[in-house]
UniProtKB/TrEMBL annotation:
InterPro entries xrefs: ATP_synth_F1_ATPase_gsu, ATP_synth_F1_gsu, ATP_synth_F1_gsu_CS
Species of provenance: [Ruminococcus] lactaris ATCC 29176
UniProt record similarity statement: Belongs to the ATPase gamma chain family.
Membrane topology summary: Peripheral membrane protein
Source superkingdom: Bacteria
Stored CDD domains: F1-ATPase_gamma (cd12151)
Oligomer and partners: F-type ATPases have 2 components, CF(1) - the catalytic core - and CF(0) - the membrane proton channel. CF(1) has five subunits: alpha(3), beta(3), gamma(1), delta(1), epsilon(1). CF(0) has three main subunits: a, b and c.
UniProt keyword Ion transport present: yes
Lineage: Bacteria, Bacillati, Bacillota, Clostridia, Lachnospirales
Annotated protein name in UniProt: ATP synthase gamma chain
Signal peptide residue numbers: none
MF terms (GO), sorted A to Z: ATP binding; hydrolase activity; proton-transporting ATP synthase activity, rotational mechanism
Compartment(s): Cell membrane; Membrane
One Pfam entry name: ATP-synt
């Protein structure tokens, strides 16, 4: 059995670690609340954009736009596939990063010419060791997601899609279901699918509002769609940021609970060792007293 001083040293060490994990839990909790508020404040605007695109497509089903072009003439082996992979900048978040990497590995296993746009240091370090093209100029952190950063990312993606440097674009991120559950998922960003805009089937006798698109329907779509893509990327960044801190909160709570259990076990060992030491001292005192009595 370890001596009292060693056990006391281990208890103090675990208590110091527990202070760190508890502090990290509180910090992640605060950042999570801020991230969710940001998303709630901006969501109505981008939902309105989605509604306007749906409205335009409903009134003009014959409209063909480049952002909706599926480029089906390109065979699967020659399709240029881009992936925006959103990981964390650091660990201590359970399986958060592992789940994202696993999903992207599944995409890379499919036929096509793959190119990665990685947000987050951990993902960048991991995929740098793989034989896959990575946009080296695409260096963004996941901390404090902003609309400006989302606009920069969407600008790069949209330019390469228009120039046919990319035929498909996916976002691999973590979506927060609720306070205790988050799911890593793959979302197709480009080309857009008409089915995603919820085409409404209306009765023939129902009034349909008239719309006027100036200067032209194509010009309106050219203005709305980039803003919509920007909003989708911003939403993914904020969702991933919130999910990361939610995962870190759960990991730190688990670590704090484990530290408390370990302190309990060490306290029992400490009390036993202390009791054994006291018993030993009493035994030695009694033995010494008896020895003195025999001499006298």
């Amino acid at each position: 059995m370890a001596n009292i001083r060693e056990i006391q040293s281990r208890i103090n060490s675990v208590k110091d670690t527990m202070k760190i994990t508890n502090a990290m839990y509180m910090i992640s909790s605060s950042k999570l609340t801020q991230a969710r508020k940001k998303l709630a404040d901006t969501e109505p605007y981008f939902y309105a954009l989605q509604g306007e695109i749906s409205r335009i497509l409903r009134h003009m089903p014959e409209l063909h736009h480049s952002y909706f072009n599926q480029r089906e003439e390109i065979p699967a082996e020659e399709r240029k596939i881009g992936s925006i992979v959103i990981t964390a900048d650091k660990g201590l978040a359970g399986a958060y990063n592992h789940n994202i990497v696993k999903l992207e590995e599944e995409i890379l296993a499919k036929p096509g010419q793959h190119k990665l746009f990685i947000v987050g240091e951990l993902g960048r370090h991991y995929f740098a060791k793989r034989d896959v093209e990575i946009d080296t100029n695409f260096k963004y952190t996941v901390q404090r997601p902003t609309m400006h950063r989302a606009r920069d990312i969407s600008g790069v993606i949209l330019e390469q899609f228009r120039n046919r440097e990319l035929d498909e674009v996916y976002v691999v991120y973590t979506r927060m279901e609720n306070s205790v559950q988050a799911e890593a998922e793959v979302m197709k960003l480009l080309p857009l699918e008409r089915s995603d805009f919820g085409e409404m089937k209306m009765p023939l006798n129902m009034y349909r509002e008239e719309i006027e698109l100036n200067p032209s329907p194509m010009a309106v779509m050219n203005s709305i769609v980039p803003s919509y893509i920007n909003g989708m990327i911003y939403g993914c960044l904020v969702e991933a940021y919130a999910s990361e801190h939610n995962a870190r909160m759960m990991a730190m709570k688990s670590a704090t609970d484990s530290a408390q259990e370990l302190i309990k076990e060490l306290s029992i060992l400490y009390n036993r060792a202390r009791q054994a030491a006291i018993t030993q001292e009493i035994t030695e005192v009694c033995s010494g007293a008896r020895a003195q009595q025999k001499k006298s």
